[in-house]
């Protein structure tokens, strides 16, 4: 919505500028024409022409220029353009440089948890010195085990970026049980990348020897993929133009690094997506709504700071929706711990508050709003989504 508002304002300014420019150009052309015409009249006059004739030509030119100036009303278009520019500038300052501190609420939170999230972020990014500095200054306990795990994976990732898969294979071997339970095919991807590298930078025979040693154990579970890799040997040296080109994407080593990091995060119970980056990105999307609500609630500051639940819907992308949620079809309110979804005997769902309202004063229970079956509060079961 904010972007469309800015775009509409810009289009208004652009329209004013075009009108002003058109009028200015028209005025310049008219003045130029009259001056040239007057100059031609003076030059065409004979040498014997009286000075009074030349003076009359100049007087006539002056009158025409005065008429042109008044008729074009250039000052008015310039004024309109200036007003539109000022409004657009103020709009940009308001929307693109807002005072985000207005959306802040002084709520209690565990600073230690926040510090741990930031430390985790630095570990993920490989900035171990920065994490150590935060641990020291914030007097936080050092998560030694987590640090060692991330140090190990960063060393492995650096090796893979240099097309050295041996450290990665050693890590896979040490964690084969976890990877098998999660259905990971990382080991096959590592050998596949090494096979492709051998085919591109060595001889087809070297690639075949590598396949016999390291790809054959995967043939029983990944037969089709192994067969395609073997068939691609016929196109050694020209894989980019062969039918098996999708097997060799230009960034397959970069994708392998991402797959390795994702598998590592899964193995230690961490999210592949950086939680701090996700939280910041989601906050940026929701910030305009927070600022708008803070502006609306400014006269009721105490009420604003006392709210336990945000009173407006915050639109963020689906990439930030990690959990299921329930919206009562009757009250249109989202389920919460205080107002959880309830399952009726008929299979329909309503929020607890809706059920209590519908059954209030009715000892026989209430009728489901979506089917003719009756139900009582005691028959309804809380759902955990």
Structure description:
The chain is mostly helical and 385 residues long. Among the domains are: 2-96; 177-267, no CATH class; 321-385, Zinc/RING finger domain, C3HC4 (zinc finger) (Herpes Virus-1, 2-Layer Sandwich), CATH 3.30.40. It is 61% helix and 3% strand. The chain has helices at residues 2-44, 51-72, 74-96, 111-124, 128-138, 144-161, 166-174, 176-182, 186-201, 204-215, 223-231, 252-267, 275-296, 301-306, 352-359, and strands at residues 341-343, 349-351, 366-367, 374-375, 381-382. Strands 2-1-5 form a 3-stranded antiparallel β-sheet. Strands 3-4 form a two-stranded antiparallel sheet. Helix 1 runs antiparallel to helix 3 (74-96), helix 9 runs antiparallel to helix 10 and helix 9 (186-201) runs antiparallel to helix 12. The two termini are 32 Å apart.
- What composes the largest sheet? 3 strands, antiparallel
Helix/strand/pairing class, anyone? Answer: mainly alpha
Number of helices: 15
Could you list the spans in which at least 5 consecutive residues all have pLDDT below 50? Answer: none
Strand content: under 5%
Strand order within the widest beta sheet: 2-1-5
> What is the number of beta strands?
5
User: What percent of the residues sit in helical stretches (DSSP H or I)?
Assistant: 55-70%
Assembly level: single chain
What order do the helices and strands follow? HHHHHHHHHHHHHHEEHEEE
What does the average pLDDT come to? 83
Q: Note the gap between the termini.
A: 32 Å
